[in-house]
Amino acid sequence: MQRRKSPAAQAKREERERRQILRRRAARIRATAIGGTALAITALAIAVYSSSLFTIETVEVVGAVRIDADEVRTLAAVPAEATLLRFDADTIEARVLANPWIGSVSLSRDFPSTLRIRVVERQPAALVDGGDIFWVVDTEGMVLGQASLETSSTYVVVRDVPGFDPEPGRTSNTDPLVNALRVLSGISPELRDQVKAVSAPSVDETALILSSGVEVMLGEATLLKEKAALVLGIIEEKGSGVVFIDVRSVSHPISRGIGE
Fold this sequence. Notes:
This protein is α/β, with parallel strands linked by helices. It has a nine-stranded mixed sheet with strand order 6-5-4-7-8-9-10-11-12, covered by helices on one side. It contains six helices and twelve strands. It folds into two domains: 64 residues, Ubiquitin-like (UB roll), CATH 3.10.20.310; 134 residues, Rossmann fold, CATH 3.40.50.11690. The mean pLDDT is 87.
């Protein structure tokens, strides 16, 4: 025979069931509200993204020194309908990087209407004598363009480079040129300030031509600090009488004076 529950127990059971029903109902209401809010936010985001809100009205160029800011804007070619929320960053950056003088580019937004283009320019390292034309190159051998009258007397000239086929935007991998550029970047500032030109017919025959007229055979771009110290020491010791120095072997440096 099944024992009947007391009225008090029955009442407690019914109260528990009622509370469970209320909790489930509240959970459904919260889920519906959250879902509705999410849908509303998504719809608003899509509407803002697709609208003309935050239309790019100003393109600001930062970091341009040797190249004109207007040229950067022209390269960027930001579409008239572009907004700060809707523009093709990769395409714009690729267009700007088409200029060999620009080493890197980054984009940032300045709300409500400015797109900022920050460029880092490549730094010229030397001029390469191409025969009829002098070409500006950076430390990696990237050909930046033809030298202007302003730059033709500013940088060291690398000459006698075999196989130099210049094309702006392309890196020259000619071994003598690469070696010459490493020499220029690796010797001491004190010696580099005296260099007028570099003759680079081969790696082993790489030579510095100093503003005093002294020819310095350095060869391969190794032990450059030691080689530079030897050169400066010989010049200090022999003064204007020295005309040729060979430090390709740091253990057996050679020097010759006038008439030797």
